[in-house]
């Protein structure tokens, strides 16, 4: 069953976060993921507001989780740590 990787991000260091973004895309693609939305228009209805919203779809929840724990994605994430405030969740898509 496909799954969505949903991230809400506030970037605090654009230069470092840019390096993360360069490396994260290929890592996500390597695990069968593709972006559905990145910094598109949005409306905050509840909760904390983050300036950047990212949604990627993966073939399965397991593929999304494997991507997160992969060496490739962790290398990218090293650039986001300290350069952003992030919330990330993976949600399985119901039929």
Give a description of the structure.
By secondary structure, the protein is α+β, with helices and mostly antiparallel strands. It has a single domain, classed as Alpha-Beta Plaits (2-Layer Sandwich). It is 38% helix and 32% strand. The chain has helices at 14-30, 61-69, 71-80; strands spanning 3-11, 34-38, 52-58, 84-92. Strands 2-3-1-4 form a four-stranded antiparallel beta sheet.
SSE blueprint and pairings:
Blueprint: E1 3-11, H1 14-30, E2 34-38, E3 52-58, H2 61-69, H3 71-80, E4 84-92
Antiparallel strand pairs: 1-3, 1-4, 2-3
Helix pairs in contact: 1-3
Query: Structural class given helices, strands, pairing?
Result: alpha+beta
Q: CATH topology, what is it called? A: Alpha-Beta Plaits
At the first level of CATH, the class is Alpha Beta
| Helix-strand pattern | EHEEHHE
Tell me the radius of gyration: 13 Å
Query: What's the CATH architecture?
Result: 2-Layer Sandwich
Strand order of the largest sheet: 2-3-1-4
Q: Choose one word for the global shape.
A: globular
Q: Helical percent range?
A: 25-40%
Largest sheet: 4 strands, antiparallel
Q: Uncertain runs with pLDDT below 50, 5 residues or more?
A: none
Tell me the number of structural domains: 1
């Amino acid at each position: 069953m496909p799954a969505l990787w949903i991230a809400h991000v506030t970037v605090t260091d654009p230069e470092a976060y840019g390096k993360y973004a360069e490396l994260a895309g290929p890592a996500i693609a390597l695990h069968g993921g593709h972006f559905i939305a990145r910094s598109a228009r949005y409306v905050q209805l509840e909760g904390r507001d983050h300036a950047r919203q990212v949604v990627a779809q993966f073939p399965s929840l397991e593929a999304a989780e494997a991507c997160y724990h992969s060496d490739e994605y962790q290398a990218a994430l090293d650039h986001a740590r300290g350069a952003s405030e992030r919330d990330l969740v993976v949600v399985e898509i119901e039929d």
